Amino acid sequence: MKGLRKLLLLSFIALVTTLLAVGCSSNDDMDKVRLAEVTRSIFYAPQYVAISEGFFEEEGIEIDLTTTWGGDTTMTTLLANGADVALVGAETSIYVYAQDANDPPINFAALTQTDGTFLVSREPIDDFNWDMLKGSTFLGQRTGGMPQMVGEHVLRNHGIDPHGDLNLIQNIDFGNIPSAFASGTGDYVQLFEPTATQFELDGIGHIVASFGVESGTVPYTGFMAKQSYIDKNGEVLERFTKALYRAQQWIEASSTEEIAKSIQPFFSDTSLEVIEYVVENYKSQGSYATTPRIKEEAWENLHTIMEQAGELPMTVPYEELVNTEIAEKVME
């Protein structure tokens, strides 16, 4: 009996050792990519789909995802080698390049192709027009950031001087803007989802317009890596981009409900109903890029928006900061 027990114990140990060895071997075969995202947002649904549907894993990539909360922090993390890839606005790459960076971050894949904010009014408006903003108090976004620059661009396109025709408030931290509006500050506010939808459901505000619809195509948020990382890990980034492209195609072919269920684990504090509503908003207005290729006309539009806002430090040619080879190879 003792001999049988000993044999069973040895067999069990051997089995566990084998399973552990298989597990370690599997992990060793995976390439880890440290990914820093500028914020956690339903606006970035294709990224979460690529993770939840196993597309990155199937391409042999293990994603180590960190939310770094803000463009400046995200870029600093990338430049300091705290991340391999950053999901952040393309304007940050221009800011860094203008400072004579010797290893500049290069944009290699698009995630979103429009602005992701909505204009929310305090009172319900049945027949909104942009002239209603004149003379109002407007809660804007951070100076130099894409939301604010796009917001000003849209206002100018509608004949409104953002610094002359309304009372523009920009001294409130990004995270405190919703609570400032909820507490009574401002007649209008520029908000991301799902806050805009939640405010509407709670009766705090009312969505009256989309800055994404009004602004046109722009490389609003995408993936970038330092040139040195691209040089050394081009094949890894090809597989990374292939997984992203698969997610983009999956979103195009899937229903709002399927997308919402796929990304729900990343938004545990948001109801499935709200996630579905937000996904529908973004998908219907074409906010999610359908391919990873960053378009040249979108890059030029970015320059126009930054120049109008007085935030363009220098004109940077498309070919200088945009790598199209990876996306094009993946799309072949």
Automatic annotation (TrEMBL):
Keyword terms of this UniProt record: Signal
Main localization, broad class: periplasm
Family affiliation: Belongs to the bacterial solute-binding protein SsuA/TauA family.
Database matches in PANTHER family: ALIPHATIC SULFONATES-BINDING PROTEIN-RELATED, TAURINE-BINDING PERIPLASMIC PROTEIN
Alphabetized PROSITE patterns for the sequence: PROKAR_LIPOPROTEIN (PS51257)
Cell compartments where the protein resides: Periplasm
Signal peptide: 1-21
Superkingdom in the source lineage: Bacteria
GO cellular component annotations of the record: periplasmic space
A family per Pfam: NMT1_2
Protein name as annotated: SsuA/THI5-like domain-containing protein
